[in-house]
Amino acid sequence: NAGVMQNPRHLVRRRGQEARLRCSPMKGHSHVYWYRQLPEEGLKFMVYLQKENIIDESGMPKERFSAEFPKEGPSILRIQQVVRGDSAAYFCASSPRVDGDEQFFGPGTRLTVL
Amino acid sequence: DQQVKQNSPSLSVQEGRISILNCDYTNSMFDYFLWYKKYPAEGPTFLISISSIKDKNEDGRFTVFLNKSAKHLSLHIVPSQPGDSAVYFCAAKGAQKLVFGQGTRLTINP
Predict the structure, then answer these.
(1) Is there a contact between A56 and B100 if contact means CB atoms under 8 Å apart?
(2) Could you give the CA distance from residue A106 to residue A25 in angstroms, rounded to a whole number?
(3) Residue B47: which of B104, B96, B8 has the closest Cα?
(4) B36-86: per-residue pLDDT in tens?
(5) Which single residue of A19, A41, B28, B91 could bond A79 by disulfide (Cβ 3.0 to 4.6 Å)?
(6) Pick from A38, A40, A93: which is nearest to B87 by CA?
(7) Closest to A105 (Cβ–Cβ): which among B43, B49, B97?
(8) Separation between Cα atoms, residue B108 and residue B14, nearest integer Å
(9) CA–CA separation, B104 vs B7, rounded Å?
(10) Residue A46 and residue B77: Cα distance in Å, rounded?
(11) CA A14 – CA A19 distance, rounded (Å)
(12) Do A45 and B98 touch (CB under 8 A)?
């Protein structure tokens, strides 16, 4: 039973480019969460999605960031016109049900903006 | 505003002794608390959790204690082993999202 998968593991972008981060939840999990970890800090919640629905995006920056979880395929976190301050590790987590207490994390995507 | 705080950025413990990691929170609406362990360049790995209706949960070498009146929880690892060296995050669950502390780097010395 594969765990949460994220790709790419490392992504380098120049300022102004777009970054797309992908997350495939664990089999049977339909709830996906994205978190961001800046250097020397804890993980910060960004967005919570179920299939085809954004449930809570209270942690997402208002500009340039968007997320989706289509009926088919992985969840995508998209960052347009990246800036140096977007450099961070982005983690995806999944849980099997809405009242699932444990969230299981993927290995993360480390984004570096030059 | 930091709703979940781990005030010790690092902790060093001798192998075989007890490691105690602490965490404080401010929001009384949190209903579930979790500890995650994280190695460099990997995602957090779930370790142990506790519901807000309990005050203790034990799993092998790991025990989590919750003091609701003090809004404090702690993770005890005994005996500590070299493989326990990692960054430990406490997290509190509210409204389906996790709020993390800043982490404590635990080093187990042989």
Answers:
(1) no
(2) 8
(3) B104
(4) 999 988 999 999 999 999 999 999 999 999 999 999 999 999 999 999 999
(5) A19
(6) A40
(7) B43
(8) 6
(9) 8
(10) 31
(11) 10
(12) yes
